[in-house]
Amino acid sequence: MQQLLLDPALRNWVLLPIMFVMILIGVLRHNATILLQSSPKRLTKEEIREQRLLQRAFSFRNNACFLLPDSIEKRKDFLVDALRSGKYLKPADPNAPKNLNPMMDDKTLENLMESMKGNMLMVVPQTIIMTWINEFFSGFIILKLPFPLTYQFKSIFQSGVATQDLSIQWVSSISWYFLNLFGLKSVYALLLGENNMASNAENEMGMAGFSLTAATSQTIQPGQDIAKLMRLESENVQIVGKNSLLEDVESRILKQFF
């Protein structure tokens, strides 16, 4: 076991400043994200009806296995009739262009702008912090991890330390940065609440969480024929069925043993 004597001043001048700066950056990013968020565009009643009908059809197809056969057939009849009849479609706009470029749609441009804002608020602060750490706190060891690591992590966690035989558990300041980047979620939740922009895992990784509403919005593209989409969905709903190994299990057991 390698034993190194670390200067106690590293705790006061390296560990705590890096952690304090990352907490401060997370709080600022949370508030900046709230300030830069634009108010969502309100949908009309007809657009909401179209989306909710498609959401109900998607949900039925994904969860039909939990329903009884009679319930499945009743829901199939209702959804197929609602999707094919067109009574849930909004009235067609005669002035709307038939072949709309998706990049010219207001909703698409708004989503791209929101995504760009989120990426900038994530990338720019982290780039500044990493540059600051590499410039002022590189070239020395600051802590020892309580768990072992493989040799592939040496170039990351011992950046600036040109020692070949040093154990990977002894890491430099850049490793403390990564530990704080993925380990401050509880601190952010304590300071900002559970649903905050700083500790959100999807926001940290630059990913959007998947949801049924998101799936519907991705399915309905700008300029797409909603009536055609509903007809296709009605065909998908029509072939939904349920085959269970437990059907007529009582009679099969009685026939086997009696």
UniProtKB/TrEMBL annotation:
A family per Pfam: EMC3_TMCO1
One annotated GO biological process: protein folding in endoplasmic reticulum
Keywords: Membrane, Transmembrane, Transmembrane helix
Presence of keyword Hydrolase: no
SMART domains linked to this entry: DUF106 (SM01415)
GO cellular component: EMC complex
Annotated signal peptide: none
Keyword Transmembrane helix (UniProt): yes
Topology of the protein relative to the lipid bilayer: Multi-pass membrane protein
Coiled coil: none
Transmembrane segments: 12-32, 121-143, 174-193
Entry's localization field: Membrane
Annotated function: The EMC seems to be required for efficient folding of proteins in the endoplasmic reticulum (ER).
Family: Belongs to the EMC3 family.
Stated name of the protein: ER membrane protein complex subunit 3
Organism: Schizosaccharomyces osmophilus
Lineage of producing organism: Eukaryota, Fungi, Dikarya, Ascomycota, Taphrinomycotina
